[in-house]
Design brief:
The structure holds three protein chains of three kinds. Chain B is mainly alpha-helical. Chain B has 13 helices and two strands; from the N terminus they run αββαααααααααααα. Chain B is globular, with a radius of gyration of 24 Å. The chains are: A mainly alpha, B mainly alpha, C alpha/beta. Chains in contact: A-B, A-C, B-C.
Chain lengths: 271, 299, 345
């Protein structure tokens, strides 16, 4: 058994190396003087300076993180509730609902983007007419539409991850909590959620990642003020991705790594 | 006795939902109706329409688009390029899924059996590379694999090869790119199942004299099956529609169904036809899914 | 129960706060620019904001079709877009563009008259030319020693799988039509049938289809020849003079990218101010330096460095055979079908 674990450990190390090789590379090249190509012409911090001064890129990063964050929260809520309900209850069209949940994953992104755009446009007319009766505000494409779009195709991932965890769960868990007098909601929260936590975390990580990198759906559902980093990067592809993009990726990776290390540290101190 | 399941369609509960149940389900139902059913409905309507000169929709019912998908326009026979394109996408997605499964399962195992304090850290480490920008990552791969790229230069420098080895713009590069992108989406769900695996079951199998391979086959796989199935779904389905990687790392020589559909909305501006292609995929999927997900009766 | 309350509160706040930025939009003095990213350098935008106090929201697209799809599907109100010539024609026909108030754009006098009254906008009422360019052949002269004068030379079979071309069905078909001496804007079933065998011969020789950054494959040595945008060629030439640019003798596509105002734009005057600002020679020069297409602004051209003025990809010498694309309406889908079918086999 120990041998198997060792082998898996070695394999995992190899896989991590595979995952990180391009990342290390792009981090290294964020310091390259040349603005494109493989040739290394010298070490410089110039791209980081440029990044710091390019407000739209920084804004876009901020937007991406906010959108991904809210999307993840919504996806986890919808996905967890959905998986739980599909598991717990039996009702006539349950199978149809199960299938329906997969639709956002199956639908090609461009179709999802276009159809949501059309939908939002159709809705915005009556909605704005109603809003106009009591305020000057106007609803249009922007954060809300992007978040809705992202959540729609992210939550099935969370749902599937949690369904897998629910399969074969001991039904006594929930019963036990309720026998002890807890109302269903509390039983769910105190017993099921901790049990589901690894799957919830898996799902959340997937949702966050998907939302960060999403291009096509975002392109169609965004407004002028909610540009995401991915939109900016894809737009820059024509000119050539200059290393300030490497710089922003490096910054983000390092910031996340730092955050992880710090929270590990905090957790250890709290023990 | 563990019954085999198709897709994870386990019925742990068999209650009919009371008002509370319906209330809890309401958010997801409403969300699905508003943002999935209605837009899909719009597309369904479009798929029966035609485009006009500017590319806007002409609302006149016609089967033309669907006919074009299934029957060759020139010869009228059954079978079109779209079949080939679709099958190619399935092959790529299938290959990717299998490789991800083989490569990723041991990783999920290791993380799932790791000490509890380390698990979340390891999971994050799996994901962090994918918080860099997709294009920047892919261009990094291009830098590695291209003819003047790092791998070739390194090999030439080490005198292992005399001429650059063609790695980029090949189907191999495409699979590499796909596996790279989707590996985490297999590792994470499988981890969810591995993590709850009761070690005593594995030990019991050993105690009863089963070797590691037999234990794996007859104990571990069935117990982590829901995770495996979830992982397969979360890799195969998105990989079907992916085309940015085929374009960037494969040179875009052989179109995939995702690319063809995108072209209909952008270059060809034939939205009805694109909608028809999309609908066909959705319906195909729904049919396959419906028939392969069987209920597992509660023990 | 505290964490769940915090969580729910956070979500609710998020949902409520999210639309607020969109709602606040109405009050500010803004300009919503929907454009090709490389065309509008950050310094130009900053300069404009500094001079006029108008905040610019830039949204990028990577192709005309993306822009068109978004405009047609509705949604956001953009003030300025940058369509190519055939797209302008289509938009004008459908009445989707605002007429420009040329009194607000005095700097238009800086433009080369050749670029002011073009076939896609004969009275110059709807658009102002931003940049022009061509689609031509880039030759890595270090690897390719035979003379390349046109499409037939590229696809003569000796450069099999060492070619990159644009991933644009219409472009590809136009090259075949030009080679056959057929008009590139007459996309009839007949002409397409004639082009088909030629394309069948050509396409298997292509190694990479890339409309976004074909220069990558050329720089990385994965290909030796390319049929690409002249801007890409100019950048390659700037990097290394071994990348020669040749306009095919059979005829080439000249594209004209212009600024136009979509109908219903909320900040039309700001848009016109921006157009006027861009036409200033010193500003236009910045645009050229960022991406060296053919600058129609004669005053700006005088300010460019000698090397830039002599870049053959930006300012091709002589009188090459050039033609712009016309809007072909529905035929676009036939072209796409032809190329997809050929690629798919």
């Amino acid at each position: 058994m120990a041998l198997v674990n060792w082998l898996c450990g070695g394999w995992t190390a190899l896989v991590f190396a595979f995952l990180y090789v391009p990342i290390i590379l792009l981090m290294v090249y964020s310091f390259n003087k040349a603005d494109m190509g493989i040739a290394w012409t010298g070490f410089t911090f110039a791209w980081y300076e440029k990044l710091w001064k390019t407000q739209p890129l920084l804004d876009a990063l901020k937007n991406s993180v906010i959108i991904a964050g809210i999307t993840t929260v919504l996806s986890v809520i919808l996905g967890t509730l959905g998986a739980w309900m599909l598991y717990r209850y039996r009702f006539p069209w349950r199978k149809a609902l199960s299938t329906l949940v997969f639709i956002p994953m199956v639908i090609p992104e461009v179709i999802m983007g276009v159809s949501l755009l059309i939908f939002f446009t159709l809705v915005s007319g009556p909605l704005n007419a109603w809003l106009a009766t009591f305020s000057e505000a106007e609803w249009g494409l922007g954060y809300s539409t992007v978040i809705i779009a992202h959540t729609t195709f992210c939550f099935p991932f969370v749902l599937v991850a949690i369904q897998a965890r629910l399969a074969g769960v001991d039904p006594c868990l929930e019963e036990a909590a309720m026998d002890l007098g807890a109302p269903p909601l509390k039983a769910f929260w105190l017993v099921m959620v901790p049990y589901l936590l690894p799957a919830i975390i898996s799902g959340a990580l997937m949702a966050f990642t998907l939302s960060l990198d999403e291009y096509i759906v975002t392109l169609f559902t965004t407004g002028p003020e909610s540009q995401t980093l991915t939109l900016k990067v894809f737009g820059m592809a024509k000119k050539g991705l200059d290393p300030s993009l490497n710089a922003i990726s490096t910054v983000f990776v390092l910031a996340t790594a730092l955050f992880v290390v710090l929270s590990e540290g905090v957790r250890r101190i709290n023990r | 006795m563990l019954a085999t399941t198709g897709v994870a369609e386990t019925t742990g509960g068999s209650r009919r939902p009371g008002w509370f149940g319906w209330l809890m389900m309401a958010p997801m139902l409403l969300w699905l109706v508003a943002f999935v059913v209605v837009p899909t409905g719009i597309l369904l309507v479009y798929s029966f329409c035609q485009r006009d000169d500017l590319g806007e929709i002409v609302y006149s019912f016609s089967w033309e688009n669907y006919r074009r998908i299934f029957f060759d326009s020139d010869t009228g026979k059954f079978g079109t390029t779209y079949f080939t394109v679709f099958i190619r996408s399935i092959v790529y997605a299938g290959l990717t899924t299998i490789i991800c499964l083989v490569v990723g399962y041991p990783v999920a195992w290791f993380i799932g059996r790791a000490p509890e304090s380390r698990r979340n850290l390891l999971l994050m480490l799996v994901m962090i590379p994918f918080w860099t920008s997709f294009l920047v990552r892919t261009y990094a791969w291009i830098m590695i694999l291209s003819n003047n790229g790092l791998l070739n230069s390194g090999l030439e420098y080490a005198r292992l090869i005399s001429e650059p080895f063609e790695m980029l713009y090949t189907p191999g590069a495409v699979v590499l790119g796909l596996v790279y992108s989707y590996l985490p989406f297999l590792i994470l769900p499988v981890y969810g199942s591995v993590e709850k695996l009761d070690n005593s079951l594995v030990e019991a199998a050993f105690d009863l004299g089963a070797g590691p391979v037999r234990t794996f086959q007859e104990v571990i796989v069935p117990l982590t099956q829901p995770g495996i199935v979830a992982g397969i779904l979360l890799v195969f389905i998105p990989a079907l529609g992916m085309f940015a990687i085929t374009q960037l790392m494969g040179g875009g020589i052989k179109p995939t169904i995702g690319e063809v559909i995108q072209n209909q909305f952008l270059q060809a501006r034939d939205w009805p036809f694109g909608a028809a292609l999309g609908m066909t995929i959705v319906v195909l999927f729904a049919v396959v899914f419906w028939f392969t997900s069987r209920k597992q009766e509660p023990a | 129960m505290k964490p769940i309350r915090l969580l729910l509160a956070g979500v609710l706040i998020g949902l409520v706060a999210a639309p607020l930025p969109a709602m606040a939009q109405k009050k500010k003095n803004v300009l919503n620019l929907f454009c090709w990213s490389e065309y509008v350098p950050q310094e130009v935008i900053d300069g404009f904001t500094k001079e006029t106090g108008i905040k610019v929201n830039v949204v990028n697209y990577a192709s005309n079709e993306e822009m068109l799809a978004k405009l047609l599907a509705g949604g956001s109100k953009y003030d300025l877009v940058q369509p190519s010539e055939y797209t302008i024609e289509a938009l004008v026909k459908a009445g989707k563009l605002e007429e420009l108030n040329l009194a607000n754009i005095p700097n238009i006098k800086n433009l080369d008259p050749k670029f002011t009254k073009m076939p896609h906008d004969p009275d110059g009422k709807y658009s102002v030319t931003w940049m022009a360019g061509t689609v031509g052949i880039v030759v890595n002269t270090a690897k390719v020693k035979t003379p390349i004068t046109g499409y037939k030379d590229v696809f003569d079979g000796t450069h099999k799988r060492r070619i990159v071309v644009l991933n644009d069905a219409r472009e590809i078909v136009s090259w075949a039509l030009n080679s056959l001496g057929l008009p590139i804007n007459e996309i009839t079933a007949e002409n397409l049938d004639k082009a088909k065998p030629l394309l069948k011969e050509w396409l298997p020789q292509v190694k990479v289809y890339d409309s976004d950054s074909p220069k990558t494959a050329l720089l990385n040595g994965d290909v030796d020849l390319g049929i690409v945008w002249s801007g890409e060629a100019a950048i390659l030439y700037k990097k290394d003079k071994k990348f020669a640019f040749v306009l095919p003798k059979e005829g080439a596509h000249q594209f004209i990218d212009s600024l136009a105002i979509p109908k219903g734009a909320p900040n039309k005057e700001n848009a016109e101010k921006f157009i006027n600002y861009i036409l200033k020679p010193e500003v236009s020069k910045l645009v050229s330096e960022a991406f060296p297409y053919t600058n129609p602004n004669l005053e700006a051209r005088k300010l460019l460095s000698k090397a830039d003025q002599e870049n053959p990809a930006s300012y091709p010498p002589g009188e090459p055979k050039l033609e712009t694309f016309k809007d072909i309406g529905k035929a676009a889908k036939d072209i796409d079908k032809l190329v997809t079918d050929l690629k798919g086999k």
